[in-house]
């Protein structure tokens, strides 16, 4: 059987997994039948790890132990502004890691961000394995186009911890375009409008002859479906407060229910003109009675509540096109991605702005995962000639005299690419130069991210400006950056390959892989114990139920007494096995109990015969 | 900004309730203490110490219970034998439980020996045999061997236990003469009896600071461990003041009057205490009987009947702590009963009635919340995980919903 590669859309709020089956990409539903799984991880009071839907169902009542939107933190430095911004509103504890990275504390246990993401990826892996009936090893995972090397590396590490071999990381808009262009020979420029649960991205791609090229990308990392939910919650809360003078937000259980119902109502209003919101017994008044919340939300009201959020996305689109100097008329199709794009008002405004109806051929929730699965399948298929041309999300260059940043590769340059530039020495008799490789957009070197550094020595002693050094940047299709410095006079050269770091050491990753494996084994063992325990308990209950009657019938004889005694021994043995969690013992006891139960049933039924 | 100790805030109320929990713990009322600490947590979720205390007591519940019971029993036996006149020389019950290496007698054995001795003293001629365990109906459903405390004979201190409030009475008082069989050297009823004198340093009194008494490492002082025994007198003083319509300041004269007035003295003590104890015994007996019925029903496989009986046991003592203590002690049995009633915990429950009919039910908001978690995806086990409430409560709610037909398992 051919090896399967799954495609995973590791989203900020929801994740999705897909696979190519018989040449057709399909999304795999989870156990509940849903095609997306919430990207949430929680630790329950009993230490159990909760992932996905179950974690979401207790996200507010157990907020301090539930991680959401870990993607916003992955691969980030502790001191970075996005981390600080996130910390302001995060209900869970965020602490500094040992390598200037970010860690999360849940019930006194410290987790790295790749570890948390790994639990989500592992859930997606399990969903795929249950569906396919076989173990899955390889995966293609998508990331936003603006993710830097560290964020991509951290995502790869998350994959490793989850037990996956991540064969490629691809950009989300590229994946969307792949799914959009799948099976079609098209040549056009498309816009990917991606409004997900927590982020908004707009990307422009050129597709032609099997080549997918991201021309430009931008977005807002703090704008998504959750903001729409919040508006509905506020509307409900204020309405209730007006009527009953009770602030429902102060009660965690009430707030959890409001969050659930707001999201549900929002989704329903994509298809209906109005929806009933009904939350019976939402809160107790303290007078031995509970109040109900009942309201009708119309689509018009929702649009009124969230109009400014949609306007914000359009403004970002406008700015992105202007900055990339792309005329709207050049765009031939608009692909809508993310659950929020099902909202009719979003579609209307996008159509209005772009001057065309968005493409209806792709499913907004599934398209990214489908694209990843297509790419995964293509990577295993040597005959496949799909070529993905991504862009560098940030400019690359080196530091030059005065602390300035000299860009060699501009932002949004299609990869693979290579660029060279000749520099000279700045001091007389300078025999070495230090090359600082940087990534970012600021003119000041210190404001950009340092990717690596190396020194080229053995330069000829000469007046400044005389010795020429050629610096070459090369980015491979995988996004790996290598930098070379060459003394043009002597041919001496020095180079480095920039290795992105996720903030975890190799030892840490290995330990996390082992911990995760141990945890999963423990979970399986505990599930197995619970299964056998319940079966055995049922047998015990039936036997205990019959015991007095059987004793009465057969204990008159020596044989009967002996049988009763033996039955009691079997029962005691089973109880001991349960108490000591001895799974083989329980299985063995269950067999003996079944025989005993059959014997008991036989005795009772015979006794009934006159 | 809300202050942590402001009694109006959740945090302030939480701290006060924490303290109450510690008082109960020191009085040997473990479940009462747990209840208080859980209450404290609901008032202020940030009280990590409450969580630690709960975990500690839960983990060591059986061992602690045995220790406290043994100590109480030892005290009772000593009282009955007339050796305790609270002169300060006897071992307080906390001292008994904290003495290293001292083996506490099993309560049942002690009770039997006392009863047997009593029969002998009462002149029952030629008893055919001594009373044995079989003669006493004793419910102990715990199937596992009782856990021994980590250090036998020693009671580990709870993490950062607070110094007990009201270590000593507010003023020096003389105890009234005891009633009944406890008369010792004071045979003359006319002679005023002088009980132990509790020297009082008013300015030192009851600052509820959180300093941990070490049960294991220090010899307990009388002042500290006297609390559980003294608290009755404390309450009585307050009651008397209220009866008198005084302004609350008890004077030496008042106390002298009390000693000289036998009627007033009788107001003080035993009647109410005894009535309370009798009521507790009655509840204990009733709940024990109900629990025995729960077990019988469960053994017969009648889990619905067992659950209904368990509900009766829960409702037997709504305001007291006797029933909760017993139910907590037998929680393994009750978990088994509720699990048996719910069926396979891996099963996915569904809401069985339309939404408008749910609103017509008589439910509270916690039931409403749990009901809202039933979405056709989560199993019973998942629901217990996301319930955000104690497991027993979640079991009770789910079981009640199932019995009412609000939910079903297909």
What does this structure look like?
The complex is a heterodimer of chains A (610) and B (410). Chain A is built from 13 helices and 27 strands. By secondary structure, chain A is of the alpha+beta class. In chain A, strands 1, 2, 3, 4, 11 and 12 form a 6-stranded mixed β-sheet that branches. In chain A, strand 25 (468-475) and strand 26 (481-487) form a beta hairpin. Chain A starts with a strand and ends with a helix. Helices cover 54% and strands 1% of the residues of chain B. Chain B has a two-stranded antiparallel sheet with strand order 1-2. In chain B, helix 1 runs antiparallel to helix 2 (30-43), helix 11 (270-299) runs parallel beside helix 13 (322-329) and helix 12 crosses helix 14. Chain B starts with 9 loop residues before the first helix and ends with a strand.
Summary keywords:
heterodimer; A: 610 residues; alpha+beta; 5-stranded mixed beta sheet; B: 410 residues; mainly alpha; 18 helices
